[in-house]
């Protein structure tokens, strides 16, 4: 798929998430989920930056490290960390959650 298709799918997933009452009732959570789905749908194609070095370099490096099995774990972790820093809150059940375990032992309530 091309970049525009990835964007449309990310926006569609973000829009579908607003069907959930928890997300629809919380504008900042809705924004975080929508941003997360859009970023997650676009980030594997960040290898487009190789286009600066020319088409041969781009074709050689396209879908290599950005689409690898380790990236399946790296991309979601980085996106989650980035969004949690931006939105300053932990989400989970009403009694709170340990969102950064095992890296932080803090257990906090939903804000």
Helix content: 40-55%
Proportion of residues in β-strands:
under 5%
Order of helices and strands: HHHHH
Structural class: mainly alpha
List low-confidence stretches.
none
Please describe the biggest sheet, giving its number of strands, its sense, and whether it closes into a barrel: none
Rg of Cα set: 17 Å
Query: N-to-C terminal Cα separation, in Å?
Result: 38 Å
Number of strands: 0
Overall average residue pLDDT: 82
Please provide a brief summary of the model:
By secondary structure, the chain is mainly alpha-helical.
Based on the model shown, name its key terms.
flat, mainly alpha, 111 residues
Break the fold down into its secondary structure elements and pairings.
Blueprint: H1 3-17, H2 21-24, H3 27-42, H4 55-61, H5 69-87
Helix pairs in contact: 1-3, 3-5
Could you characterize what this model shows?
The chain has 111 residues and is an all-alpha fold. The protein has helices at residues 3-17, 21-24, 27-42, 55-61, 69-87. The N and C termini lie far apart (38 Å). The model has no long low-confidence stretch (mean pLDDT 82).
């Amino acid at each position: 798929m091309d970049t525009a298709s990835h964007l449309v799918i990310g926006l569609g997933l973000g829009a579908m998430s607003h069907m959930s009452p928890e997300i629809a009732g919380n504008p900042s959570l809705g924004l975080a989920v929508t941003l997360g789905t859009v970023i997650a749908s676009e980030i594997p194609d960040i290898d487009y930056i190789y286009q600066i070095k020319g088409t041969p370099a781009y074709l050689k490096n396209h879908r290599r490290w950005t689409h690898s099995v380790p990236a399946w774990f790296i991309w979601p972790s980085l996106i989650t960390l980035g969004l949690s820093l931006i939105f300053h809150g932990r989400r989970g059940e009403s009694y709170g959650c340990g969102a950064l375990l095992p890296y932080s032992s803090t257990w906090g309530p939903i804000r």
